Amino acid sequence: MIINDTSLPFPPPEGSSCKLCPKDWLLHGNKCYWFSTAIKSWEWSCDDCLMKRAQLLVIHDREEMVKNVLYSTVWIGLNITSPERMWTWQDGSPLPISDPEKENNCGSVKKNKILSEICQTELKWICQKAAVLV
C-alpha cells in the first residue's frame, strides 16, 4: 500500500515545521548545540566544530549566554584576527572590547562572563549550528 501526503487525514498546518538536530546535539530555539567532554586548544576546538559542519559558540545577546548555562570555562567562537587587534566572532561580527592583552587572543566563557585566554590553553568547547527544519 502506498500512502502519499494527500491521503493523510490531518496534514500539518501551513507553515508548521519540526526542528531536528544530529544525535548527541541539544536543540534550543533554532540552534543545535554540542558540548565537548575533551579539552583542547582554541584552534583544535574550532577545527573540530568545522568537521561537524558547525562553528564554535557565537554569543550575540545575554539570552544566548544564559541558555548555555556553564559551570566550567569553555571555548567560544571569539578571537583576535586583525592587525587592529579587534575581537571578532566567527560569523564576522565585532565585539566591542578595548585593550586586549597581547598574549590572550582567544575567547572563552564561564557562566555569564566572557574571558580572554591564551589560545594554547586546553579547555572544553561548544559547537553550534542551525537546526534543520523538516
TrEMBL record:
Its membrane topology: Single-pass membrane protein
| C-type lectin domain residues | 28-128
Tell me which UniProt keywords the record has, alphabetically: Lectin
List GO molecular-function terms, semicolon-separated.
carbohydrate binding
- Gene Ontology cellular-component terms listed: plasma membrane
Q: Which Pfam families did the record assign? A: Lectin_C
- InterPro entries, per database record: C-type_lectin-like (IPR001304), C-type_lectin-like/link_sf (IPR016186), C-type_Lectin_Receptor_IMM (IPR051379), CTDL_fold (IPR016187), NKR-like_CTLD (IPR033992)
Query: Where does it localize?
Result: Membrane
Q: What is this protein called?
A: C-type lectin domain-containing protein
Which organism is the protein's source?
Chrysemys picta bellii (Western painted turtle)
